[in-house]
Amino acid sequence: MMNSTQVSYFILGAYFDTRPFKYLFFIIVLCLYVLIVGSNVLLIVVICVNRSLHEPMYMFLCSLFVNELYGSLGLFPFLLVQILSDVHTVSVTFCFTQIYCLHSYLTIEFYNLTAMSYDRYVSICHPLQYHQLMTAKITVYLIATLWVFSFLGICVTTSLSFSLQLCSNFINKVYCNNYSIVKLACSDTTVNNIYGLVASALTTFLTVVLIIYTCLKILKECYSGSKQTRQKAIITCTPHLASLLNYTFGVCFEIVQSRLNMDHVPNMMRIFLSVYFLTCQPLFNPVMYGLNLSKIRQIWKRTFSIQRRYSDQFVPVDLNKQQVL
Known about the structure:
Blueprint: E1 2-3, E2 9-12, H1 22-49, H2 56-84, E3 89-91, H3 92-125, H4 130-133, H5 136-162, E4 165-166, E5 170-171, H6 178-183, H7 190-223, H8 227-259, H9 267-274, H10 276-279, H11 281-292, H12 294-313
Helix pairs in contact: 1-2, 1-11, 2-3, 2-5, 2-11, 3-5, 3-7, 3-8, 5-7, 7-8, 8-11
């Protein structure tokens, strides 16, 4: 047995020989990362620059986009290095740093989506009290609380795993995650398992139930209203539920894969689905919210129309074709 502090590195065993396609995979992952960073940064800038978007819903969206950048930073640079490397090892320090980053990203994502659903619920179901219940100060407090609470919760998770006695340093993944370290333990992991189950229930099950409950209340409230009100409810709930379902699917598969034997699933499929919630969600959210929210669409239209008018004013004129009077 050896303590995690006595292990100098971990071996990532899910990588396989991609020598003929190494640079192709590298370019694909790099393009995906550039697309994620570009789309999220662009929407963050749009929200920060335009004063008309300084509302609670868009502040929560800004927090969501920042979290997508944070989670992507914990995975993509590491993947790019590993794809080009012939030896797939990672130091203990970096491995636990990655665990902390990715697990806190996961927690923040769920809490942020829950806070956004609460904001929409108050806005539609209690419009008269909305400006009292969702002031800018309260919104900032909610965002700060969900980030701090997530960071503190994952501190406990990584600390419990770091103190385990390990029998091996082989991780059958393409990146480090907490449960892979727990499975290497020779010592008792009862505390880790209990805390992990409680944290998973609070992070996934409870937040999903709350989001679905608020969306049902919104639909019920708007069902008896006018056609325009029903359309507003659908526009409000559709991107939120789509984002939640997309993310929950990826997280649930990762939880199932970590705890059950998935040898019957092809290796490429296991790798793709294990990184699904870390790669597709950061790209899915800016596309979904950026295209579906009317205020952001209007800003895009105004921006492009201004650019078009500006370019039309400076169209080069062929003097040879002008008539001389």
